[in-house]
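Provenance and format

Records in this collection were gathered into a single text stream. Each protein contributes a sequence line and a token line. The two records reproduced below are adjacent in the stream.
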Amino acid sequence: MPHVIVKLSSGNSEEQKAKLAEEITKAVMDSLNYGEEAVSVAMEEIDPKDWTEKVYKPDILAKPEQIYKKPGYEPV
């Protein structure tokens, strides 16, 4: 039962987030052969000024073994 949590900068519209959730659901279904009923997607908005402390350090730097696509930026 995949549950995908997307952490993103605040400021995206509800329509954009709904579209992203739809596309992620399709990708999970296609890639992992789950039905739509098995997939859930959550959005967690992070203020850009808090990104390094709330996302980059704890989720990216501290857990490199979980990262399948590394970001192409360095934190500020």
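Adjacent record:
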Amino acid sequence: MEKEEENTMNYVERVLEDVKAKNAEQPEFIQAVKEVLESLKPVIEAHPEYEKMAILERLVEPERVVMFKVPWQDDQGQVHVNRGYRVQFSSAIGPYKGGLRLHPSVNLSIIKFLGFEQTFKNSLTSLPIGGGKGGSDFNPVGKSDDEIRRFCESFMTELYRHIGPSVDVPAGDIGVGAREIGYLFGQYKRIKGAYENGVLTGKGLSYGGSLIRPEATGFGATYYAVKVLEAAGESIEGKTFALSGFGNVAWGAAKKISQLGGKVLTISGPDGYVYDEDGISGEKVDYLLEMRTSGHDKVQDYADKFNVPFFPNKKPWEVKVDVAMPCATQNEVTLEDAKLLEANGTKYLIEVSNMPTTLEAVEYLTAHGVLVAPSKAVNAGGVATSALEMSQNAMRYSWSEEEVDAKLKTIMENIYDACANTAKEYGMEGNLIAGANIAGFLKVVDAMIAQGIY
């Protein structure tokens, strides 16, 4: 038995070392792979044949990486060049599916980590979609509509070669909302000369979009949080929440939390965070939409409008709450933040943004009794509703808001159950991170094995 465990450790560690050597300049990707592979050790131990089949080596290599230049012209006639990416990570269970991110921080490491995570996330939804991700280091903040349109048209002029309704279906992410999706789809349609509205999700309702899609990630995260609380014998009613960000994700979460009786006390931006002791609900939630479209990218606007405290250059994790829900970006909860959360008595960290917690912070929180719910499960509501949009496009049909919301709620409850039950099956009851990784992994691997070596 000890020899088997040693062999398992050797295989996992060998693959990790190989990933580190081949991707030395990609820390976010290495972090994502390390977190997943280490939790898979019980599965690898139960399936020693996976090593001979090189399952892990195949899993950590994307099927395709596309990198391209994106030249565009600003309103003054100056030409700029950005770098575009599309990483098609796994098509084992369906066409590649994952968002496009426009943000100055975008690089190959970030897109690869997001595509890797997306593979497991999409598997957890139980829907037939594979994993992919893309984007550019273009910064849409402060750009005019015409500048954003020109960029999107240039970006799609290359991307169209690599996507399609049955090949790769991008969606929105940070910096990409309904406006950008519209510009991207318009260019795709012009180039292809066909109305393939299933090629992109997050579209406007007038040309194939789905109700609930803008709110879906936040709604889904809240449904998952409700299941976490219920498993602990608690209710969302009366619970206090700290949220970061103020974009689509935080907006959707704040909206659903307030609907279900919880109280959101914070939102944040690049400039700091605001604390609203009366709770962010009603017209205050609606104002987040106005903030997002203003182009200011400042959460202080909320503090000024509603006369609440603003804390510049700080994160909301110092606020005493029951539940913390990071909704902004990767690695936004550090070890120092984790210590603040634990000291303030926060019992639950529900990860909403992709990989928002550093490995050190996760280790500290779990060691001190704080339950961490992993983003690849928690934020799957967005891509799940994108897949529902694909289904509606394929049927040439639209479901009502109530129908989409009900389907989303069921999907998120099933994802929680899969995480909890899988963790228990492998002797790690209560470890939702391991449960999510293993449950997502098993479906992908079964499909890989069935389809031969690729």
